[in-house]
Design a protein that fits this description.
This protein is an alpha/beta fold. It contains three helices and seven strands, in the order E-H-E-E-E-E-H-H-E-E. A four-stranded mixed beta sheet has the order 1-4-3-2, covered by helices on one side. It is globular, with a radius of gyration of 15 Å. The two termini are 18 Å apart.
Length: 131
């Protein structure tokens, strides 16, 4: 039923510009779309052009949403190619983001975890997803 569909992961933020910088300059995603003051909401969609997923970050003017509820709120990117994985970590470091110890030690075995400005975590996993 959902095969071939587009996946959007949407999340509010109080730090729209900082979050977008993390996912674009750090992770290397692209801004796909941006809107301002749509019924009081500003938003940016980031992802890779042509891929069937993207992230939408929104800010509702005059409202506060706070930080991630736990350190185990994760987005995991599986990067099986060693060189691509290393280059992505290097890009994150060059953008000023430093790894953090994962809440679940499993992710530290083959991955490196970074925390975005809202406290949500992104794992760069040097492995394949084998379902």
């Amino acid at each position: 039923m959902l095969q071939g569909k587009v996946l959007r992961v949407a999340r509010p933020t109080d730090r729209l510009d900082q979050v977008v910088r993390f996912y674009t300059e750090g992770l290397g995603l692209h801004i796909l779309y941006r809107f301002e003051n749509h019924d009081g909401f500003d938003g940016v969609m980031v992802g890779m052009p042509g891929e069937a997923y993207h992230f939408e970050f929104t800010h509702h003017r005059g409202h506060s949403v706070g930080r991630a509820p736990t350190q185990d709120n994760l987005i995991v990117f599986y990067l099986p190619e060693q060189l691509e994985w290393q280059q992505t970590i290097k890009r994150m470091n060059a953008a000023g983001y430093k790894p953090v110890k994962s809440y679940n030690p499993y992710w530290d075995n083959k991955g490196v975890t970074f925390e975005d400005p809202d406290g949500y975590r992104v794992v760069l996993q040097n492995d394949i997803w084998d379902s």
